[in-house]
Amino acid sequence: MARSINKKRVEEKAVLIAFEDSKSSKYYFRDLLRDKKLTGQVILVNRDKGQDPKRVFEKIGEYKNKNPNEVFEKEWIVIDKDNWSKDKYLGVMERARKEDICVAFSNDAYELWIILHFEPLTRPTHRTELNSKLNTIFLERYGKKYEKSSQDIYKFIIGFQEVAIKNAKNLVKQHHRDYGKIDPEKNPITMIYQLVECLNSLYDKERKCNCFPMVDM
């Protein structure tokens, strides 16, 4: 009985996610959905490379226009700060706020989220250093380098999700201590943990799906 109730609950809650890249983060969430048996309930959008934040945002509208009969409880975009201009980066977050779209952003890059599965990181770190640190971690633990294009990263970090969420939340607390708010321009920060928690919440009606940007951004 409990299993059928859970299945019905998942079917009633659908999520649409658009990505900046067609590899790393998309592969991670593809495997997370398979692991949690959410395939078909959560739609992943992006088959292109090198999308800027504005283009990722536009993909949400494009998908909905092509699929008008699909209704989503939450819509998300996954973006990195990288070298994008303030207008492209913060401008998209403001547009997302107005349209009630959640933003799972990372500053400097998505790889910060992967590192947080293994250790906290509280100082500003460029994406080249993030990749270098991941190479060291993966070589020491698994005898192989971290590959951004690898399709099997999720299986190596699946057991450390709660650690990553805890470390990501500590970065949010650090932002509030240092700046009085979550500042997307300040490195390091990642809100990917909110998207992960949102997907986890599809199994539990008591958990809320919070997301950035907040109204008072």
Notable characteristics:
217 residues, alpha/beta, 5-stranded mixed β-sheet, 9 helices, 11% strand, globular, disordered N terminus
Describe this structure in words.
The protein is an alpha/beta fold and 217 residues long. The chain has one domain. The chain contains 9 helices and 5 strands, in the order αβαβαβαβααααβα. Strands 2-1-3-4-5 form a 5-stranded mixed sheet, sandwiched between helices. The protein is globular and about 50 Å long.
Mean pLDDT: 88
Which sequence of strands runs across the widest sheet?
2-1-3-4-5
Q: How many domains is the backbone divided into? A: 1
Largest sheet report: 5 strands, mixed
Our measurement of the CA-to-CA distance between the termini, rounded to an integer number of angstroms, reads: 43 Å
The secondary structure category is alpha/beta
Total DSSP E strands: 5
The total count of helices amounts to: 9
Shape: globular
Low-confidence stretches: 1-12
SSE order, as H and E? HEHEHEHEHHHHEH
β-sheet strand percentage:
5-15%
Q: Helix amount, in percent?
A: 40-55%
Radius of gyration: 17 Å
Sum this structure up briefly.
With 217 residues, the chain is an alpha/beta fold.
Topology:
Blueprint: H1 2-11, E1 15-19, H2 24-35, E2 42-45, H3 53-66, E3 74-80, H4 86-98, E4 102-107, H5 111-115, H6 127-142, H7 153-157, H8 161-179, E5 189-190, H9 192-201
Parallel strand pairs: 1-2, 1-3, 3-4
Antiparallel strand pairs: 4-5
